[in-house]
Write a structure and sequence with these properties.
Blueprint: H1 3-11, H2 31-36, H3 49-54, E1 60-69, H4 74-83, H5 89-103, E2 114-117, H6 122-128, H7 132-144, E3 153-155, H8 167-170, E4 178-180, E5 190-198, H9 202-209, E6 218-227
Parallel strand pairs: 1-6, 2-5, 5-6
Antiparallel strand pairs: 3-4
This protein binds zinc ion.
């Protein structure tokens, strides 16, 4: 190891996962890389590609993904690193905060009563140690100051490992995959469901089916990124 590298690591132990420049306090991604994230304009676009995927649910009202990435992009890589292995919950939170700051004036979050992140199955939560969607939601909450609930919506079954099921199967909407345990607490509320990445929309659609028994609720959906 070069001495220069060693000294840099000593004084600035945290570096940006993309460009490896030193990070400031409470940063998990540097401002330069943050500025280069591929934004969508979905906050202001109705009938955007996210809404098209989710529109068949009777409770669904509006939705959007903040970023959009191609397979193999650096954004996909840092999202993967943030979610798996050791994970990087502070990065997910910082991205959530940034998204909220950029979208708050568009009116996208207007009228929301409650934030509900997509839950993991308890078994997966225990092995991973954190729920990635909850950390994104925490970031939104830091800026929007809205209440969050993490125990009313639960995941009843784990998805099969992707390699064990065909593409068709992964895209299927499954009722019974999620459950709302106290529907009476959500009557007539406008709920923001938060997910990390939307690909086919099947997970969010499956979660929305659990709100069937919730009288008069409306659902908006926010995801950090949409995979093309
Ligand atoms: Zn960077």
């Amino acid at each position: 190891m070069r001495i220069g590298t060693y000294l840099t690591d000593l004084f600035f132990p945290y570096t940006c996962p993309v460009c490896h420049e030193p990070l400031g306090e409470e940063e998990s991604l540097c401002p330069k890389c943050m500025a280069q994230l591929p934004r969508t304009e979905q906050a202001l676009q109705r009938d955007n590609s996210t809404e098209v995927l989710l529109q068949d649910d009777p409770h669904f009202r509006w939705g959007g993904c903040w970023l959009e990435y191609e397979k193999g992009s650096w954004l996909q890589q840092i999202m993967f690193q943030a979610k798996f292995g050791q994970g990087n919950p502070p990065l997910l939170r910082q991205l959530g905060q940034q998204a909220a700051r950029e979208w708050v004036d568009t009116g996208f979050f207007d009228g929301i009563d409650l934030i509900m992140p997509i839950p993991l199955h308890p078994k997966r939560f225990r092995t991973r140690g954190f729920n990635q969607s909850e950390w994104i939601a925490k970031g939104l909450q830091d800026v929007l100051l809205l209440p969050m609930n993490t125990d009313n919506l639960t995941r009843e079954r784990n998805n099969k490992k992707q390699s064990q099921s065909g593409r068709e199967e992964r895209q299927q909407i499954q009722s019974g995959l999620f459950a709302v345990n106290h529907p009476e607490e959500l009557y007539k509320k406008t709920i923001l469901i938060v997910d990390d990445i939307i690909t086919t929309g099947a997970t969010v659609c499956s979660a929305m089916t659990a709100f069937k028994k919730v009288y008069g609720c409306k659902i908006a959906v926010f995801a950090l990124a949409k995979a093309k």
